[in-house]
Amino acid sequence: MSAKIVTITSGKGGVGKTTAVANIAVALATNGAKVCCIDGDIGLRNLDVIMGLENRIVYDIVDVIEGRCRLRQAMIRDKRLPELFLIPAAQTRDKTAVSPSDMVRLADELRGEVDWVLIDSPAGIERGFRNTIAPADDILIITNPEVSAVRDADRVIGLIEAEEKNKPSLIINRINPVMIKAHDMLSAEDVLDLLAIPLIGIVPEDENVIVSANRGSPIVLNSKSIAGMAFRNIAQRLEGQEVPYLDLDNHGGLWNRIQRIAGKN
Amino acid sequence: MAACGTESNGLLERTRMGNLIDRVSGRKRSAISAKERLQLVLIHDRTDLTQTALEELKDDLIAVIARHVDIDPDAVRINVERNGREQRLVADIPLKGVTHHRGG
Ligand SMILES: Nc1ncnc2c1ncn2[C@@H]1O[C@H](COP(=O)(O)OP(=O)(O)O)[C@@H](O)[C@H]1O
Ligand SMILES: [Mg+2]
């Protein structure tokens, strides 16, 4: 086994990093892969509650790095999917408790254990961000169709380009087709044109995301949710499959164009 | 409402569409403002080139070129164009014909 290490990051907070990590991880594990998520947001632990695993935490990432427990002891097994694990963030420490080389060492140890390591990044472009991108084979940038989120995404893409990492891919989250049709929201096509990196997913705004967060049960487990379907599609694209983009506005035109743009990347 | 975009930033198509919607609604739709503003902000963020710096560069460029050929400073256009994640500086400098040559 040699895991692929994928980090999800954004610059701006609140755009959907944690939601995306939880959902893509659950989708990959549902497809039969062995997956470990790492909550890289040290001091602001959240991935555990989104995955519904907050009551199972004994050890955290800083315990592993500082040698108070073994790696396997800090890997919390998911209650629904036996091949899904979470290494939680430390809640009472801050990002300086971990260095980029600690993260590379931890990720390398995990490579032999699982098929996928998904790392959730904190907001910002400082130490916490550096920690989470250091071990990444691939980076997914997530953004919303809003000026501040797109600007921050562009800045983060620039920083990643300077690191000589693989070119990142883009997830556009919280697309609202009604607002786009009224020309009051940037379309996925606009965002893609501005940021100019390959697309890997378009996720619509879906209030079920909040309901599923309330329950600690990621939205991909809800077969009726359109956002859940979008996250399942991202997981399949990560696995190398070609999956058409969802026709979110039921009118074809825009989405056909997106398919063509996405195809070009 | 006047179009504020310049052709060089790839805004032409958007601006035309914006004008059409402006005429119908009397106001530019916010998605179009968002895209136009982001196009300019991203060029600035990526290149660290301000409008003032660009103006200075243009003046210097005109001075150098005018030493070699006859040009009309007011006709010179210099812009940053965006192609994917690359920015390039594009100068359009019309040359005056020899018939207009100012004698020494
Ligand atoms: N597609 C979506 N539709 C509706 N709400 C969403 C969607 N994606 C994320 N959210 C909500 O946005 C908020 C921020 O998401 P989160 O994943 O915590 O962002 P981050 O980790 O980037 O700070 C949460 O309340 C989440 O439920
Ligand atoms: Mg988060």
Description of the molecule:
The complex is a heterodimer of chains A (265) and B (104). Chain A is of the alpha/beta class. Helices cover 41% and strands 15% of the residues of chain A. Chain A has one domain (4-264): P-loop containing nucleotide triphosphate hydrolases (Rossmann fold), CATH 3.40.50. Chain A has twelve helices and eight strands. Chain A has an eight-stranded mixed β-sheet, with helices on both faces. In chain A, α1 crosses α11 and α5 (100-111) runs parallel beside α6. Chain B has 104 residues and is of the alpha+beta class. Chain B has two domains: 7-48; 49-104, no CATH class. Chain B is 46% helix and 13% strand. The radius of gyration of chain B is 17 Å and the shape is elongated. The model of chain B is unreliable at 1-15 (pLDDT under 50). The interface between A and B is medium-sized, with 21 and 16 residues. The structure holds adenosine-5'-diphosphate and magnesium ion. Magnesium ion (MG) binds at residues 17-18, 41, 46, 120 of chain A.
